Amino acid sequence: MKSTFDPQNDLTELRGKVIIVTGGNRGTGLATVKHLARAGATVYMAARNEGKALQAIEKLNHEGLQPGNGKVKWLKLDLSDPREAKRAAETFMEKEKRLDVLVNNAGVLSGPFEKSADGLSNMVVVNYLSSFVFTRTLISLLTSTATEFNSDVRIVNLASIAHRFTPSGVKFSEIEDLNVQYRGKIMPGFMRYAHSKLLDILWTRSLQKHFNSVSPPIPIVAMSIHPGGVDTFSHNWPLPWFWKPIVALAINDAEHGSYTSVFAAAAKVVRDEREKYCGAYLDNKPVGRIAVPSATARDDKLADDLWSLTMSLLKDLGI
């Protein structure tokens, strides 16, 4: 699948800019890191496993980061515990005095329903809560960067078109509303994933509302995106050389699958038409298209309820 978006020509000047991409050591995250570093940025690959991250960085350096000659660094980030996410953000702020773009890319697609030590769905912790804490901890640095002359600060949250499969009647009045198991549903694991991605879109709306409502408004653009289907699996199948071109007829490879993330993070048009993209939900057909999420994902009261529940939860956890 091809795209008219060209990361070599359609990105802003990123030299001197600092970016974080979570889960950036493989797949679309790694491709996102590569494109942003090639445009000149210092990109922090936020990932849990140091060995895998350094191996990915070595691969990028070996391939070369021309033409922009940016840099890629590792930041330890473990999203399985929101406390660790907070520590990672604090560590970053000891290293850097600016943050221009945060791409919350990391997440899990499937798995059995399990609870964390805090009694929360592991998928919700990884796909939503820890990213919320990581971002909240970095808000002061993002804000100070945004107040600089000619700033272009963005937060990009990876959601999914799967959010549309979340059943109606979702509510966020108590902690157990984050632990919905979808027992008795077809593919309950997928339903839990869809639910977690709904959280990401609602959270993004609340973030933008916060930035716009303070006085003076904080010039940060928050976006959620659907990156499209991405082939991160055919290389594990028998005879991958046979299957890869067939799979490519239906979905993107990681390189092109990263384009919506890269667009949201650094496309010139987002800078030039900032108001248009504030709080927007983007998809990949074509890359960067402002799309309309589900009615549930557009529910401002639901977004407010989720925000309040999350803040109350974090207060109880002492985070």
TrEMBL record:
Gene3D superfamilies: NAD(P)-binding Rossmann-like Domain. It comes from the Eukaryota. GO terms for molecular function: oxidoreductase activity. Keywords: Oxidoreductase. PANTHER family: PHOSPHATIDYLINOSITOL-GLYCAN BIOSYNTHESIS CLASS F PROTEIN, PHOSPHATIDYLINOSITOL-GLYCAN BIOSYNTHESIS CLASS F PROTEIN-RELATED. Belongs to the short-chain dehydrogenases/reductases (SDR) family. This is Short chain dehydrogenase. It comes from Lentinula edodes.
